[in-house]
Amino acid sequence: MVESRTATVEGRDGLRPDPGAAAPTWWVWLAAWPVTAVFVLSNAATPLYVLWQRDIGFSQGTLTVVFAFYIVGLLGSLLVSGVLSDRLGRKPVLLPALALAVTACLIFATAHTVAALIVARLFTGIAVGAIVSAGMAAVTDVAGQDRKRLAALLASCAMVFGAGLGPFLAGVLSETLPAPTVTVFVVEAALLITAILAVLRMPVRRPTAPPARGKWVRVPGVPHGNGPQLTLGIAVFAPGITATSFVLSLGPSLLAGLLGTTSRIVAGGMAFAMFLAATGVQFAVQKLPRRTILTAGAVSTVLSMLALITAVRTSWIPALIASALLAGAGQGMGQLGGLSLLNSTVPPQRLAEANAALNVGGYVPAGLLPVSAGYLSDAVGLTDGATLFGLVLMALATAGGIVVLAGRGRVRESG
């Protein structure tokens, strides 16, 4: 059978696939593991912030600033990692990124100051930026032309599943084992080492064409003619990931206010449920037209913000849970729709940069709005701050849905 084995040639990058052979399907799944492993780290600190706040002492505003440095690192990484990956290959970007993620684990495990947390989050953001560009493109490369939908699904689900597994794993380990802020990151470092081993053996080839001309550090973009696909993806993905970022940064504070609990398992469990919804909904809608997926994602984010406002104004716990689940579904569908549109239309030699462009469009508001909400909550209270955040994001998600509907019939759906 064609997919039972991979014909390979030996090179400096290790095993590389013969251009005429297809990688077995299990390699497509394994290629997504580094994405999962790094995204476990991306949110592993979420349930632990209450411990650091207690031991170090800092406000909600400072907490969102720590989170924002993750966005700073991520956006800075996206300015270069997509272009580097398309020109030099996936492994030269992924391996340093994974090494930096392991370094972030060591800093987290020994952090005793806000500055250390900021550095660890910055390193984490840089690693994540490389993963969402080069890592997701590597999944598509391994999958090949005939499995682009599978590649988009697995790359997207790997991201959101890891993002949810991180806080849940951290919550459980920190509540049940000693030295919580150390144990969590020792376990995560072990996961990252397995991801490094997977990348070393991953059947991806270096680019055969000479490096394209142009700046190596630049705002990522897409080839001429792919702008509409990128716009549709950002229109829905950006509000969705901003909603989940709010839950990650201020969710534990909302739980403490509504439930009177600082349980790290509860906080991690809510984040895990949110991203489990993001994972499950993508498998559920994968065969629908991409514009339908995007429209549903925008609607889900709007409903999430309605539920959030209801929760903070009425202290109704089911509404907060519904808000988290709907936020996860909104991000999941926006992400899947956006990645699928890019996978189906962007040539492989520009795909990592296109993925980076999608994530820049999503993470800019995901960094700015939760930070603003955090400082606003310090000034006017968590209830009013969360309400205003919900109203603003609801407007953005509604606008995104309108963009998708207005673009119906003008964007090619192929692949």
UniProtKB/TrEMBL annotation:
Location, primary (coarse class): membrane
One Pfam family cited in the UniProt record for this chain: MFS_1
Localization terms from the record: Cell membrane
Listed GO CC annotations: plasma membrane
Organism: Streptomyces himastatinicus ATCC 53653
Lineage per the UniProt record: Bacteria, Bacillati, Actinomycetota, Actinomycetes, Kitasatosporales
PROSITE patterns in the record: MFS, SUGAR_TRANSPORT_1
Protein name: MFS superfamily transporter
Membrane topology: Multi-pass membrane protein
Major facilitator superfamily (MFS) profile domain span: 1-412
Regions that span the bilayer: 26-52, 58-81, 93-112, 118-139, 151-173, 179-200, 234-259, 265-285, 292-311, 317-342, 354-376, 388-407
Family matches, as PANTHER family: MAJOR FACILITATOR SUPERFAMILY MFS_1 (PTHR23517:SF13), RESISTANCE PROTEIN MDTM, PUTATIVE-RELATED-RELATED (PTHR23517)
UniProt key word Transmembrane: yes
Swiss-Prot/TrEMBL keywords: Cell membrane, Membrane, Transmembrane, Transmembrane helix, Transport
GO molecular function, one term: transmembrane transporter activity
Entry keyword annotation includes Acetylation: no
